[in-house]
Amino acid sequence: MHQPPLPSLTAADPEIARLVEGEAHRQFGKIRLIASENYVSRAVLEATGTVLTNKYSEGYPGRRYYEGQQFVDPVEALAVDRAKALFGVEHANVQPYSGSPANLAVYLAFLNPGDTVMGMALPMGGHLTHGWAVSATGKWFRSAQYGVRKETGRVDLDEVREIALRERPKVIFCGGTAIPRTIDFPAFAAIAAEVDAVLVADIAHIAGLIAGGAHPSPVGHAQVITTTTHKTLRGPRGAMILSDAAHAKAVDKAVFPGLQGGPHNHTTAAIAVALGEASAPGFRTYAHNVVANAQALAAALAQRGFDLVSGGTDNHLVLVDLAGKAIGGKPAAQALDRAGIEANYNTVPYDPRKPFDPSGLRLGTAAITTRGLGPDQMPQVAAWIEAAVAAAGDDAALGRIAAEVAELMAGHPMPGWA
To answer: Do you know which HAMAP family this protein is assigned to (predicted)?
Structure first.
């Protein structure tokens, strides 16, 4: 059953309670390889369900527009202090509701409509909010996009510099949503300095790896850092903006009153809990294990003939190009789901297929590492992936794989289910 138990919800709304229980059981029985997902601790789950959700708190600690902040202010102050200590930054804002609003706050803080922003193109691994055309950031601002080399799947920093010198952006984003390789923050910082741009490192995917010392940090290179608080950081669905002191005021004004009203205090509390957990010595082991699992999974998939973008991974994320497998990413992801393996279809660089039916699969190892799986089990996971992709459309075969997956996962405890 769900942990913590849900007796009041079950009594008041059994239909919703049944769906929550079903989702918890689904998460328990599957190999979850969506790179943006994880499992939070029971402490984080409990924090998100407290009476803090009842309280409105527009403003910042000590400067609120509502009375009754005697306990909320210390909660937010704790989250801020823990974020600053964990990442070694001068300033932290823990109020953004999610990663996209955090990035929008950057635009409000440092750009005017029509100004030029530079980021990685979405099909190359960037994020919608880095200036892609269908996003408000691509509609309200002039966008310059960089990509990766077709031959290597890696960012060509000479090309990035060339585009920056030509387009003169006011803000440069580095980071993205499907980048399997280490981000060269010092090189991006040198380019940004050359064109007098604010460098923003979007570390939403790798924040936990940075906190755990498994990926280089952008601190000291990027003036502003945005991140979600879930994914590899293993916290609730929220976000933070970290910055140096010189950019702190602009960031805070952009978040509130620029974009948001009152923060979600229950989420802030859960962020504080997660940051405390990430400060513990064991989290460093976790972060390094995430990378070890990703690299072991990548190697096992490559041995089975899968084409990996950039040839492998340096972090938690593996991007698979299925063009040589005669199946698209979407039917492959659907087959995997039926086989008890949760992934998402994804575009790959220079993808000839449409975004809603792309050539790729994006896999991540943060969640299975939380469950205790290790590199020795990645060859079996790769074997199941190969078998499921080959068995697309064969429900009986996919069901047999799902039963084997469930048997494996039954031996690995899950926070939130018992």
So the answer is: SHMT (MF_00051)
Expressed as residue numbers, the domain containing 212 is 47-278
| DSSP reduced 3-state for 79 | helix
pLDDT of residue 5: 94
Q: Where are the beta strands (DSSP E) in 292-393?
A: 307-308, 317-321, 341-342, 344-346, 360-364
- Does residue 93 sit in the same domain as residue 194? yes
Residues in the annotated binding site for (6S)-5,6,7,8-tetrahydrofolate: 122, 126-128
The confidence score (pLDDT) of residue 347 equals: 96
What is the pTM assigned to this prediction? 0.97
pLDDT confidence of residue 186:
98
Q: What pLDDT score does 105 carry?
A: 98
- Residues of the chain with confidence (pLDDT) below 50: none
- Assess whether 311 and 229 both reside in one domain: no
Q: β-strands 59-60, 63-64: how paired?
A: antiparallel
127: amino acid identity, one letter: H
Judged by DSSP in three states, 172 sits in strand
What pLDDT, on the 0 to 100 scale, is given for residue 124? 96
Q: Are residues 261 and 114 in the same domain?
A: yes
Residue positions counted in the chain: 418
Say which residues have a Cβ less than 8 Å from residue 360's Cβ, sequence separation at least 6. Answer: 309, 319, 320, 321, 322, 329, 345, 346, 347, 348, 351
- Residues known to be catalytic: 56, 58, 202, 228, 231, 237
DSSP three-state, residue 418: coil
